[in-house]
Hints:
It is a single chain. The chain is built from two helices and 16 strands. By secondary structure, the protein is mostly beta strands. It folds into two domains: 7-95, Ubiquitin-like (UB roll), CATH 3.10.20; 100-164, Ubiquitin-like (UB roll). The strands form five sheets. A five-stranded mixed beta sheet has the order 11-10-16-13-14, with helices on one face. Strands 1-2-3-4 form a four-stranded antiparallel beta sheet, with no helix packed on it. Strands 7-6-9 form a three-stranded antiparallel beta sheet, with no helix packed on it. Strand 6 (61-67) and strand 7 (72-74) form a beta hairpin. It is elongated and about 55 Å long. The termini are far apart. The relative contact order is 0.15. InterPro entries: Multi-ubiquitin_dom. Residues 28-93 form the Multi-ubiquitin domain. This is Multi-ubiquitin domain-containing protein.
Amino acid sequence: MAKKNETIALIGGSTNKLPLLFMKPNSFEIRVNDRTFNYEKSTITGKELLILIGLNHSTDYEILFKLVGKEFEPIQLDEVVDLADPRIETFFIKPYPSVVIEVDDEIYPIAHIFMTPTEILTLAGIDADKHYLKQILEAREITYKNDKAHVIAMHHKMKFVSCKIGNTTVS
Length: 171
């Protein structure tokens, strides 16, 4: 059994090993798609993993995990994974091909669950140096004009619009 703050698993076999799971007082750090998330329980289901990283539409994503020396294996929504298992290297979640987003009233399939505004603009064939992105929600808009590197958890049918960056001249 792991002790508090003890490294439980390592990613990769190189000398540049990155920690995958750490046991902290009452929490685990879990690596998903090269990002780290905290979780308080020692076991997690596929659905709980999706909710943890902000993906609530559970049927839109394939959930995989990798054990040391093995290939990626699928996890079902109700399948339980023991986070204290030292063989766990990482989790990987990808959208099914049917997951799409809308940019300027055009539909685009996505291949990643996390994207930046720059990546979304590029996907839509829009020059990210001359445009910024706004996310359209039911009652509000979120602008990424000053945060093009912001990481967005992608959901099916998210809506965005591109906005031209205006010239700013100083007299």
